[in-house]
## 1
Amino acid sequence: MSNFDQIVKLIADDLSAVEAKLTEQTASEYSFVDMAVQHVVEGGGKRLRPILVVLSAKVCGYDEGRDAHTLAAVVELIHVASLVHDDVLDEAAIRRGRETLQTKWGNKVAVLVGDYLHARVLSMLVSRRSDDPAMAVLADTTQAMCEGEVIHAYKSGDFDISEAEYLKIISFKTGKLIAASCTLGAHLGNPTDTKQIEALTVYGQQIGTAFQIVDDVLDFTEDPDKLGKNAFGDLREGKLTFPIIYARTVCNDDEKQLLEKVLNPNTDETEAITFVESLFQRYGVEAHCLEVAQDYADRAKAALTGLPETPARIALEQLADYVVSRES
Ligand code: FPP
Ligand code: MG
């Protein structure tokens, strides 16, 4: 059994309760709305963010009295809503092995289902205590995710985007919600220990960046069936991601010019893929990106050193490595 499967087993009861919350809290009495919503809510995925809420709560001494499952469902729903909208932006056809909403029912349905999920998130948060920090944390997080995606969209045609600018974008669009999952879990455990909350927030931010770098690599290297989405999606769109930004900085001038040309969506797709693959081989791009991702994972693990050495902490350390070694 892989480490990831063992972690899922360790908190299996919590995760079943989260699944039940997800279905129950997003149900609509209108059958088409319900069908479209459940198509994405029950569309699988690793449930990484709920896992982080639960483990962060446990490592901080969670007393079961506060509702971890609602918060875990809330972060997953923010994530699902952001993917539904991201797939509209990216014109993606497949997600989690299923047709995307806009492929099945069009952009209008996809945008509205994303909005519906946000409305459910607000309602679930309102039903919690009024002194709950979750509202503020998630309002800031959602804002940063939107900012990250807007800057990314704005910069999408910019071949000269720097590595630092790109890292900032991904720390917003992906890192913030993963960090918030850990922050909120820590609040559920020991809300007064700010050191624990800060440590878990740093942990989440670091694995979030590692997660997105690996996501960028998998787009070039992984089998689409395992990935549950089409491969080379970023390249097809002419999107500059971490591997391309690195390749651009290490290749020679002729290759750089050709790289800029093949990133133009009008270039023949096979030509673009063949060239980029040859560049990746020549400069060891995959290995370099995975090393950078591992550095982030190591920093994440280092942030946990002050926390008690419980099974939950070991699981969080293993999750940091899983984020880098995963194949989907
Ligand atoms: C996937 O990135 C997308 C994200 C991690 C964030 C999406 C955020 C928004 C659409 C902003 C709006 C968000 C909210 C909460 C209102 P990707 O395209 O690199 O990954 P992919 O290959 O999985 O599509
Ligand atoms: Mg996308």
## 2
Amino acid sequence: MKRVAILISGGGSNMVRLLDSMTGDHPARPVLVLSNDPDAGGLARAVERGVPVAAVDHRAFGRDRAAFETELAAHLDAVAPDIICLAGFMRILTPAFVDRYAGRILNIHPSLLPKYPGLHTHQRALDAGDEWAGATVHQVTADLDAGPILGQGRVPVMPGDDAAALAARVLKVEHQLYPAVLRRFAAGSRDRLDLG
Ligand code: NHR
Ligand code: GAR
């Protein structure tokens, strides 16, 4: 059985989908949900599901990302994860942290990478007049949102969409995509999955 830790910053709807997928013949099980925000709504949702949680408040470390990540790594190493899923995790990770868990960190990003790495993806897709938007699950490397792509889900941009309307449509495909990619990744596949 593969051991999965999930890093969140917010409501954790992708985290809930990942947790709820890891039952039965799934090759992985959740061992920890870890947040950089002690008030993240997702922490209570993990507790409800009986999954251990921890928080490391990045604000306590000021600009010292290395010190913040030392604490993150201590929580992670205590549960020896095989796979670390970023699910709405909002802190950029240093190369040292990424190296420590090389090849084991996944992220879901709300755009059709390589378009729109970074933040404000939905507004950028709308401003560009794109016909399609979506989400990408990729392996995390030191280069932000640029690691090997494991899967994408796409949705149409609709007339009259604002960023919130588009984000809601993209989030639905995220909830299909991320559990499907995690299951394949935990089983050893690195083949790309395309939905939509
Ligand atoms: N770290 C590395 N090294 N590589 C990646 O691919 C990463 C990563 C950390 C997070 C998620 C990513 C996304 O899917 C992710 C991928 C946060 C920011 C950001 O600018 C950018 C991209 C992502 C996550 N964070 C600001 C920071 O200073 C804080 C922004 C905020 O708190 O609102 O860390 O989009
Ligand atoms: C998701 O849309 C995810 O792709 C995005 O934040 C949302 C989190 O929702 N991630 C990022 O923007 C990472 N920078 P959730 O907390 O309900 O899963």
